[in-house]
Amino acid sequence: MITSMTFIIALYIFVLAGFTGYIVISRVPSILHTPLMSGSNFIHGIVVVGALSVLFSATSVTEQVIGFFGVLLGAGNVMGGYVVTDRMLAMFRPSVKPAATSDEKKAQS
Amino acid sequence: MITSMTFIIALYIFVLAGFTGYIVISRVPSILHTPLMSGSNFIHGIVVVGALSVLFSATSVTEQVIGFFGVLLGAGNVMGGYVVTDRMLAMFRPSVKPAATSDEKKAQS
Amino acid sequence: MSAIEYIVGLSGLVASALFIYGLKDMSSPTTAVRGIVAAGWGMVCVVAVCFLEIFNVPEEARPYLPVNIALAVLALLFGGLWAGRKGRTVEMTAMPQMVALFNAMGGGAAAAVAAVAFLKHESSAPLPLGVTALGGLIGCMSFSGSIIAWAKLDGRMNKPLRFGGQQAFNAFVFAGTLLLAGLTVCSQLDPAPVSGPYATLFFIGALAFGICMTVPIGGADMPVVISLYNAFTGLAVGLDGYVMSNPALMVAGMIVGSAGTLLTVLMAKAMNRSLSNVLFSNFGATSEQAKGPEGEMKSVGPDDAATSMRYASSVIIIPGYGLAVAQAQQKLYEFVKQLQAAGVDVKFAIHPVAGRMPGHMNVLLAEAGVPYDMIYDMEDINDSFASTDVALIIGANDVVNPSARTDKTSPIYGMPILNADQARQVFVIKRGQGTGYSGVQNPLFFLKNTAMVYGDAQAVLSKMVETLKGLGSN
Amino acid sequence: MSAIEYIVGLSGLVASALFIYGLKDMSSPTTAVRGIVAAGWGMVCVVAVCFLEIFNVPEEARPYLPVNIALAVLALLFGGLWAGRKGRTVEMTAMPQMVALFNAMGGGAAAAVAAVAFLKHESSAPLPLGVTALGGLIGCMSFSGSIIAWAKLDGRMNKPLRFGGQQAFNAFVFAGTLLLAGLTVCSQLDPAPVSGPYATLFFIGALAFGICMTVPIGGADMPVVISLYNAFTGLAVGLDGYVMSNPALMVAGMIVGSAGTLLTVLMAKAMNRSLSNVLFSNFGATSEQAKGPEGEMKSVGPDDAATSMRYASSVIIIPGYGLAVAQAQQKLYEFVKQLQAAGVDVKFAIHPVAGRMPGHMNVLLAEAGVPYDMIYDMEDINDSFASTDVALIIGANDVVNPSARTDKTSPIYGMPILNADQARQVFVIKRGQGTGYSGVQNPLFFLKNTAMVYGDAQAVLSKMVETLKGLGSN
Ligand SMILES: NC(=O)c1ccc[n+]([C@@H]2O[C@H](COP(=O)([O-])OP(=O)(O)OC[C@H]3O[C@@H](n4cnc5c(N)ncnc54)[C@H](OP(=O)(O)O)[C@@H]3O)[C@@H](O)[C@H]2O)c1
Ligand SMILES: NC(=O)c1ccc[n+]([C@@H]2O[C@H](COP(=O)([O-])OP(=O)(O)OC[C@H]3O[C@@H](n4cnc5c(N)ncnc54)[C@H](OP(=O)(O)O)[C@@H]3O)[C@@H](O)[C@H]2O)c1
To answer: Which of the other chains make 3 or more beta carbon contacts under 8 angstroms with chain A?
Structure first.
């Protein structure tokens, strides 16, 4: 899609993204580890975009079959990952409204 | 140097680097703000590398003069930034050895 | 660069930013929902814009385009609807296997993308070819490995499959797969390659290796393994992104790759084991016949236990894996609300590795409606046990095993535990003499201030609720 | 891509990673030194490898190469040695102006790089040209603005320069500069441009705007302004990196750009003001004649104050800007050690904006050798004042002003303050009736439990140390 990416630039992007993932996760409290696992599972569902590109420019039945399954699986990854993460996260709620601020503090620290 | 970088890729790098700077700094305790300011001041001294590239391929006296001042200023930025940051940071020390672990905890939280 | 390429590139950038922002927001329960919604919009944006590529396909793909589009829409609909329904209806206790399944799908898609890159012979330079092979390898491993993990967690494959020389056999499979990868890459260096057989065998080998690697690992270790495969899929997607020059895939994939790796390491650490120990040590094979402390366990009925809690002033509840098995979280909260109504101060204490996934218990309790400010982390509550009347342990075992503190020969030695033994009175709800995940006996059950309440957690808690109802509000 | 380009690119990647790692380590006092050392090695690596470019210069630059290399070495030596000596010898209290100066140098270098990009006419596409112009503009503003900031902080420019219609004039200068930037870019779109005059005027305009923007801002606001210019320089370096296709510059520059922006906002927020208020409101112009509470201030001599602290059981010390002015941090710690030897429990309470830079007081106390675990943040200590015998305020004013809590008309209303007024006895060391940074009077000084100890902080503390010596260890 975006042509002419040198290897060095790719390494820069990998390193920056890797560091970002590391530092963001190192802040998540253990209470949220399960939804986080499925949340990151959802994010790698972006592979469906790659599979769509492949399928759009397929020029043989083999490519079409592989592309079809790629999109099928990728779409499942995206949808499933989103739904379960959302369901889990929606279940976390504080007990009463007035205590909300202190909870926020606790959760952020 | 590394040719053929598209604008989109450049934006990716900017966004990732910007986010990294943001999230890293948002964790620094206020006690370290002054050394941090000079520490980040040191880091943008990397401009000296750009100035060096410019000076190396200068082909006129004007370019040489501008390049010379660029390197001069950049080198000052790097050296000065490093020395003052290092001096300031070296001054922070805990009171006694045995308490070191609890200090570490305190500082990390 | 055409306008379409620009828009597609920008949509990827927006999506990447939203993913990062979303993950960051997930770091607090108050913002977590906002985070996943933001990430969801990022995904919608990038998938929708991706359809613009229809106007940009290479000349030779034009004739196939209508069929391809139809196939794409079909695949999106089927995959999305099926997974969406599955995800909406799955029990919270079955979450680990569900995540394993969705992760397998992502790995499979990543492998498919790599396969087509070989098929189309998109490059004949060694570097991109090598990256493609790596992406395919990791994607396949993640696919087949996650499916095995799913089968184990879903109870479809109950015994770890182990045989003599397994490590050597696995190493052999791996070496063979690498060899096939090398042959595929070499054949693709040719401008007009005939690499079909090599590539096919390579992918089969990679799938086989994923299976071989996963079958000997015990079912209870699966959450760590899934987390690892989650990181693997991310990495494979990132590498695919490089091959396709799509930075959005690179960024999203690598974020998950590094985040997942960190999560895996944190999980293994919380279980007091190293990652290689989880993957290669066949944990649990020998611990079946572990001998434990001998002595007498006292047992009491649910009604007595419930009554004494009703008149206690403070109770700390320690849920464990058994609560998830019995699906008793709703009943538990009903019981807790009764205690609260009677003026008892009730708290939940959650060990970081209680259950079978990190945060597993938090999710279950959240499902039952327990507000998260009643739930305390180990560090925050461990000092309070000594001043607490009753510790109620429900289906937990290893996380309250004092031999982790004292017995150097125990497989869980060194793991930090909840200090339930310091409470004035300890009640333990479990079905019988069964050991926990680590297979060792628990000296806590033999202490003189401990009383066992035998039975399935659901049944026992129902009885307790009945008892308290009987007592009324006096 | 040649081998040299590969090595240069990789060195930049290594440097970027080390910069990020270094910044991360600076987030804790225990690892901070390691962090700056790591970043330093990154810089050494990237600068050293950069010399490989000598073998890669374009054909037409070959004849100039020996001279260019000589100039480069000279410039590195001179710039590095001069700044290194300055940095090693500067007083800690003069740190803000030193940072301003080094920041100006970075901005100047960034502007120079942009200027040569125009001169060499490296591109004739609008996008890179626009980016070059933006980099030049920001670099120039940061250069001239930081120099003004330095002059103000160094006491070389004591009054803010203000005149009627200044905002309009500045806007006019800015518009003119933008126009010149546009003309420069347009002329460069031509394959054989004659843009010299435009470009020269544009750079002069940008420098002038940096001056115009900074002169009306009061000296005490300068730390915020420097922090902003620090972010500006980072941004300019990042843009230069795009123009030169050097990702290391892009990454390092943008990291500083965003980190510096965040730091600036945090600083302004801690002073209870918005950033635009700092930049455009000419703060301090009207507050000179602010009327304050009337009443009587009690004053005591240093010996009496010292004696009563010697026999107190707990003392909290609140240092402020006056301590930095008097350079009395060493004497203060000497005094504190005497108190500690006498069994007094001594703590330091630091307000986030005490002094003239964030963390200013921490640096001063650290210089004097005060261990950082004796130093408490506002939130951690504010509840302890009520149970403390003596609060000793040294050259602080605004940060202990109770009208921030009560007086809605005060310019500092709403700023969180240290609750010194809750201590049983308050001593205030200051020279006279001078107001602090915000120019308002402080009702704390009129309370009945407050006693003023007039005099320069250095002189007063010396006398206090003498007094305690006289008392001996009895
Ligand atoms: N959280 C994670 O990430 C993770 C991942 C992998 C492994 N692990 C490991 O899993 C263990 C977790 O400890 P844990 O204390 O939560 O659980 P556990 O040690 O596995 O103990 C579970 C206990 O629940 C009882 N139980 C089972 N079904 C029950 C039912 N229906 N009703 C009542 N009780 C029932 C069992 O005894 P009976 O058979 O007698 O009823 C068993 O002793 C740790 O060793 C940890 O390292 C954790
Ligand atoms: N930290 C930052 O980032 C930052 C940046 C910019 C602005 N500010 C602002 O600066 C202020 C800081 O408050 P602050 O309480 O530290 O200081 P302050 O309010 O500025 O007060 C300083 C006091 O020190 C006294 N003083 C001056 N020289 C002295 C000497 N040689 N010996 C003894 N006393 C001396 C002065 O009174 P006499 O003249 O009577 O001696 C003055 O009242 C806040 O308003 C803050 O918003 C902070």
So the answer is: B, C, D
Which helix (H) or strand (E) covers residue D315, if one does? strand D314-319
Mind telling me how many Å the CA of B16 is from chain A's nearest CA? 6
The alpha carbon of residue A34 is apart from the nearest alpha carbon of chain D, in Å, by 27
Using CA atoms, how far apart are residues C362 and C344, in angstroms rounded to an integer?
22
Distance to chain C for B23, nearest Cα, Å: 9
| Cα D105 to middle of ligand 2, angstroms | 29
Interface test with A, best of B1, B3, B5 (most A CBs within 10 A): B5
Which positions in chain A touch B18 (Cβ < 8 Å)?
none
Q: Is the ipTM of this complex over 0.85?
A: no
C134 and chain A in contact, CB less than 8 A: no
| Physical contact, C and D (3 or more Cβ pairs within 8 A) | no
Distance CA(D160)–CA(D141), nearest Å, equals 18
How do the pLDDT tens digits run along chain D, 474 residues long? Answer: 578 888 999 999 999 999 999 998 887 778 888 999 999 999 999 999 999 999 988 888 899 999 999 999 999 999 999 999 999 998 877 888 899 999 999 999 999 999 998 888 877 788 889 999 999 999 999 999 999 999 988 888 777 777 888 888 989 999 999 999 998 888 888 777 676 788 899 999 999 999 999 988 877 678 888 999 999 999 999 999 999 989 999 999 999 999 999 988 887 877 777 788 777 766 544 444 445 556 778 889 999 999 999 999 999 999 998 998 888 999 999 999 999 999 999 999 998 888 877 777 888 888 888 888 899 988 889 999 999 999 999 999 989 998 888 877 777 777 788 999 999 999 999 998 888 877 788 899 998 899 999 999 999 999 999 999 988 754
pTM of the model: 0.83
Query: Which residues line the pocket of ligand 1, CB cutoff 6 A?
Result: C 220-221, 223, 267, 271, 320-322, 325-326, 353-358, 360, 395-399, 429-438, 456-457
